[in-house]
Amino acid sequence: MINREVVTDIVHWSERTFSFRTTRNYPNKFNNGEFTMIGLETDKKNIMRAYSIASANHENFLEFLSIKLDKGPLTSKLQKIKIGDEILIQDKSTGTLVIDYLKPGRNLYLLSTGTGLAPFISIIKDPLTYERFNKVVLTHTVPDSSQLAYLEELTLFNKRWDIITNNNFTYFNTLTRAPWDNIGRITQWVKEDRLHKAIKFEPINPQLDRFMVCGSLDFNKELIEYFSHIGLSEGNTSTQGEYLVEKAFVEK
Ligand SMILES: Cc1cc2nc3c(=O)[nH]c(=O)nc-3n(C[C@H](O)[C@H](O)[C@H](O)COP(=O)(O)OP(=O)(O)OC[C@H]3O[C@@H](n4cnc5c(N)ncnc54)[C@H](O)[C@@H]3O)c2cc1C
Questions:
Q1: Among 172, 187, 192, 231, which lies 20 to 30 A Cα-Cα from 225?
Q2: How far apart are CA 207 and CA 32, in angstroms?
Q3: What predicted TM-score, i.e. pTM, was given to this entire model?
Q4: Could you give the 3-state DSSP secondary structure of residue 181?
Q5: Does 252 sit in the ligand 1 pocket, CB within 6 Å?
Q6: Domain architecture of the chain: domains with CATH
Q7: Does any ligand 1 atom lie closer than 6 A to the CB of residue 38?
């Protein structure tokens, strides 16, 4: 079933991304990290696209982080929404980025590029994430700092959500096309054994540590190759693995 939800809040992070909240008639049943179909009603037909739910399932609103594409059938219109507008949201969700699909482990690495950040915003708000794993790091890589959506929230997340995180959350960002404290693709940081040092985690141990990946096709592909090279198996909705992968979008 498709619900009509009302937009209650909008944040334009940059010329490339924005996020928005809606009311929530959506049933209280999605798993944190899943995606659903959302869209707009137009004269001709509904335009619906897959979107990760960025809010957690214990929150009384729904939140989404969106790209802005001038020529995108949906996002050319969606980027112009205003508070009070209606969004269509399918009341079923799915996806592989769910902590239940990971084998038990020590530290959890959530690795994202671009709007691939969205499912992890949901997962880091889930108390179970911190019951299952000792330490949790969320990495976000984008071309320049204007695209670091949720920068302040994530920088202050441990402080603001300490009842849930117990101070075990770390946020780490890198830029690929502008000067910054941390430069370069996170794939290199992982492969060159630099990430764990920068965030003061134990050295990555394939037997103990677990990973979730959400980004562009190239980013996902490179990490899948690396993880299989170090002997990790990919999990899915029916079999637990040491890592999980979801596309942040489909390249046509
Ligand atoms: C599992 C899944 C989850 C998704 N979650 C999100 C999400 O949380 N937020 C979000 O903005 N999009 C997400 N997408 C992409 C989304 O479904 C749409 O493609 C996007 O909203 C653009 O829609 P459009 O109709 O404007 O353009 P489309 O015709 O859908 O896309 C046009 C082209 O733009 C590029 N593109 C599409 N989406 C993105 C993106 N997010 N970042 C960079 N380039 C992109 C691709 O090359 C694509 O072929 C997800 C896709 C999948 C498969």
A1: 172
A2: 25
A3: 0.98
A4: coil
A5: yes
A6: 2-90 (2.40.30.10), 99-247 (3.40.50.80)
A7: no
